[in-house]
Specification:
mainly alpha, two-stranded antiparallel sheet, elongated
């Protein structure tokens, strides 16, 4: 004798037991999805915190190691500015692109 299962008809709700199982399955799926989202959020916070710590520590290390170089660069800039101001004071023939002659002014003929 072949087993013939009746097709569900329009408006068929199934047995009461199957509705209860479906409700429990859906509830568990929602809870599992919420737990997965919360876990992903916490994991991303941990990853971002570790990345931030690495960047801060690396930046601090580079800043600390380059402090002597920054001192030297500042000293060179000061020396360069002082030499430039001494050169400008000793050779005062050109001021803002205007030539100042030390001799007699020329007259036009």
């Amino acid at each position: 004798m072949p087993f013939i299962e009746e097709r569900p008809r329009l408006g068929y709700q199934g047995r009461v037991g199957s509705r209860a199982n479906a409700f429990i399955a859906k509830t568990l799926a929602v809870v599992a999805g919420g737990v997965a989202l919360a876990s992903a959020f916490v994991l991303s916070l941990i990853v971002f915190a570790i990345a931030f710590a690495i960047i801060v520590i690396g930046g601090g290390y580079l800043w600390w190691k380059s402090r002597e170089l920054r001192k030297q660069l500042r000293a060179q800039m000061r020396e360069g500015q002082m030499q430039h101001s001494h050169r400008a004071a000793s050779t005062s023939n050109v001021i803002e692109g205007v030539v100042i002659s030390r001799g007699e002014p020329r007259t036009r003929l």
